[in-house]
Amino acid sequence: TDAVFIKELPSEYTVSGIRDFDVMAHAESPLGQELKNLQYDGSGPDTLVVTATVPADSDKFALNLVKNSGSLEDIMFHFSPRQFERGGRLIINNKVNGIWGRDQRTDIHMLPKMFGLGRVHYAFQINHDGFRMSANGCLVHFFEHRIEPPEPGSSIHVQVPPFDDYEHPQPWNIHSLWWGPASSLEGVPNVLPMIPINRAPAMECKDGFITGMPKVSGEEVKHQEAQLAQLFAGSGAIKVSVIPDKGYGFVEFTSPTDLRAAIQKYNGVLFQEERLRLIISRSSGAKR
């Protein structure tokens, strides 16, 4: 449960004063929190864990990591999941002197679920080479430093803007912030995979991403979902979802072991005269 999860986090690194912070209710005084004594060698804090709830009808939400408190002109790392924009996508970017860089985009349907799930645990690990981001223990993205990284021992700041640049609301509820060394989270479930970016992702997740199906819409979506459910019957699949007009969807399994076995069994099988591809439902973290 969420209560167990929060209790298991080493309490000495919990950021005090941040509890059930409704971003839109505090729009006139947005959250800006100093994170002290950044270290890259494991001797001190290098990981921010944000435990939060995002409403099911939220269009987007965002988080920034910056060097200087209060600055919106220079952003080291901008994290912005967008549920409805062009079918749903994650935007990662930076900003220098008020100018956004070239954003990195990932189809949100290839990532762990983030909207309407209750509490999700977002982890942001800062290394010499960049930022590694995960949700509920599943690797989401890697973003290389585009500006000089902070010096060891320095402070950085987390910002939670209630509105985007066009004054569109970005609602979510932050239950707690945690700032400490990644090593102290070892053994705590559903927080960090934090594997090296050039290795195959660990199999913590239970959601599979399927692609290669014919694109369908309307009532054909339910028909295709039923056919896929029949295909995966007996494999531990508990839910199949097809995204209309996209040619891909998702299969939720009862355990990571069932997902692993299904990938071995169903990858490349013929379905409606097309070859299916089944992978873990998250980004690979490759450069884009």
UniProtKB/TrEMBL annotation:
Q: Name one GO molecular function term.
A: RNA binding
Q: Which UniProt keywords apply?
A: Lectin, RNA-binding
What the entry lists under Gene3D superfamilies is as follows: 2.60.120.200, 3.30.70.330
Q: Give the matching SUPFAM superfamilies.
A: Concanavalin A-like lectins/glucanases, RNA-binding domain, RBD
Q: Show where the RRM domain sits.
A: 206-283
Q: Please list the residue ranges annotated as the Galectin domain.
A: 34-177
Q: Is-annotated flag, keyword RNA-binding?
A: yes
Q: What is this protein called?
A: Galectin
